[in-house]
Amino acid sequence: MHTDFHRIKRLPPYVFAEVNAMKARLRATGEDIIDFGMGNPDLPTPPHIVEKLKEIAGDPKAHRYSASQGIKGLRKAFVNYYQRRFGVDLDINKEVCVTLGSKEGLANLASAITNPGDLILSPNPAYPIHPFGFIIADGAVRSLPCEPNNDFLVALERAVRMQTPKPVALVLNYPSNPTAMVADLDFYGQVVDFCRHHGIWILSDLAYAEIYFDIDPPPSILQIPGAKDIAIEFTSMSKTYNMPGWRVGFAAGNPILMNALIRIKSYLDYGAFTPIQVAAAAALNGPQDCVAEIREIYKERRDVLVEGLGQGQWHIPSPQASMFAWAPIPAQFKHLGALEFSKLLISEAKVAVAPGTGFGENGEGFVRIALVENKHRIRQAVRNIRTFMGNASTVLERAELRVAK
């Protein structure tokens, strides 16, 4: 029987698996593990959105197949959102598609546009689907720096000049998962100009557009004149409205890429459950106080975490956006590497984080902390970690003994 599955062989071992397994084992023994590992929002979906779902789910007609591009009412709501938020006009039929979350949209578009061996450029570290969506589709990936500055632009120019054949697409993600970095319109403008000149598609992931702190709202790449000639952008309801399990996102932008995405989706799905789509439209069209409240909760959690750990001598840059802190491993533990430090943190401090290497080799030396526990639990985690760091020499000695055995 054939078991040599080519695409599966191209996927590396799942770095998060070891930490997840440790977490499960410890919880099975009754340990209280504070989980900052997965970016899985813990807050409830706003009640008016849930009520709309319940209302429409009561209609038997709503239980039939939906439409893979998304129902017109939801696409219209999204078009209105882009107009009021970014000042960007979209064609409801040619430039918008509802997706089953931004992750599904990115993966399906990668499958639609990638020929075997095509080269894709992606920042490193990155959310895994950004590079691996193309690797699964038999493409190849070259890494770029993740910070949206001149180093990125220089690396982009070098990648195009030195690579044969030239790259076919570039993936961007700002605000970034995992690094929480934010790009501005000047950066987007330079990238769009360069990629238009060289005929390179741009896929922008804007899933964290509404989770920002102490800064102006993050922009869309589609605000750049001419961006729609080469760019498509993915957004999501998951973080903005606490709807991760609902699996609703959007693609917006270039009609050629959009047609490719819509066509491949027509073979793969019939769209999200219609009541979910109607409820998502109610979220976009309805009162937005809930979005501001969600944003404020994440800001308060960020401040408790960053200030608390800073007092314990683990100094973490305060993220300006997203629901993550990208934390450099404390100096006394840095030699362990991201995975071993994460395992030590869960075994000794009972706190789970995501090792940076799960987001690419350039994530070594960092862990990602998701702000998905309430302030009380974050304070408890801070106390545990400060005790852990205060006993660093003893903790490291125990860890070395375990390795020796």
The beta-strand count equals: 12
Instruction: Point out poorly predicted stretches.
Output: none
Tell me the CATH superfamily of the largest domain.
Answer: Type I PLP-dependent aspartate aminotransferase-like (Major domain)
Give me the secondary-structure category. Answer: alpha/beta
Binned strand content: 5-15%
CATH topology of the largest domain: Aspartate Aminotransferase, domain 2
Number of domains: 2
Kindly report how far apart the N and C termini lie: 40 Å
Shape: globular
The sequence of SSEs as H and E is: HHEHHEHEHEHEHEEEHHHEHEEEHH
Radius of gyration: 22 Å
Count of helical segments? Answer: 14
Strand order, sheet with most strands = 2-8-7-6-5-3-4
CATH top-level class of the largest domain = Alpha Beta
Mean pLDDT: 93
Structure description:
By secondary structure, the chain is an alpha/beta fold. The chain has 2 domains: 6-44 and 290-404, Aspartate Aminotransferase, domain 1 (Alpha-Beta Complex); 47-285, Aspartate Aminotransferase, domain 2. Helices cover 44% and strands 13% of the residues. The protein is built from 14 helices and 12 strands. The strands form 3 sheets. A 7-stranded mixed sheet has the order 2-8-7-6-5-3-4, with helices on both faces. The protein has a 3-stranded antiparallel sheet with strand order 9-12-11. Helix 5 (101-113) packs across helix 9 (255-268). The longest helix is centred in the last third of the chain and has 23 residues, at 289-311. The radius of gyration is 22 Å and the shape is globular. The relative contact order is 0.16.
